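## retry 2 of 3
previous attempt timed out at serialization; input unchanged, resubmitting
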Amino acid sequence: MSVSVTRAAIPPLTRRRRVTDNAMRGLALALTLLALVPLVLILYYLLKKGLSAFSVDFFTTDPTGRFLGDPGGIRSAILGTIEIVVIASAFAIPIGLGVALWLVEYGKDGRFANLVRYFIDVMTGVPSVVFGLFVYIVLVVTQVAGTFAAWKGAVALSLLMLPIVTRSAEVVLSLVPDSLREAALALGAPRWRVILRIVIPTALPGIVTGSLLAVARAAGETAPLLFSVAFVNGWSLDPSLRMNSLPLQIFNDVGQAQDRLVTRAWGAALTLVLMILILTLIARVVQRRSRLAP
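## retry succeeded, writing output
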């Protein structure tokens, strides 16, 4: 009886419904292909113009700054990008994780916690150039520990990474079952030990994924570095000095009149895209393994 009632409740699949369904499927497919067109064109031009710059010297030499002759490679830009992003990660990831832990474990739905979440959401939508201007006014103009410096660019990038790390970590930490916390607390474990031994290890794959995505976002930013690091051809380990980076190298070369410098800019852009692609793939692999884990 129930089967017949259920079948009667389902309307028949008319020709009009089939036509509408096919039309909507076709529209969705067309919009998807349309959205992929800019991405395909960008990758095409990057590969077409960037691969011609790739060579051993391109990755093993620094920019020379010569108007004529060999312009050099992008070694200092690659190493500078890595160092600045590592310093920014050392600032943003621990602070972001700490804020997320407090929001999930202690703040819950209090007024102050909601206020913190509101400001984190506001920071997520702030343009990167605003963070660069903030660091420029606070740290560069006032000449705190010198003028332009790599660590000041790292501070600007860390402000950009902080809301991404915090929000992603908060979402992952909130997915940890409360039964795990309650079981550990029932056994007499203190709250801080439950967080360190139960909560964080359980949510670690998601935390790593969010952190890597934040790193990938920060690695491609140019505006904060323009206001805080400035451009230099050479490379040094000292974060208190000016430092080259891939976004700055691209910005400096792309407007030059020499074809060799423009080609170097395309090669640097392709290198930066490949670095971000590798980080994104690592984040996806970590996320997939966390889903497949028992």
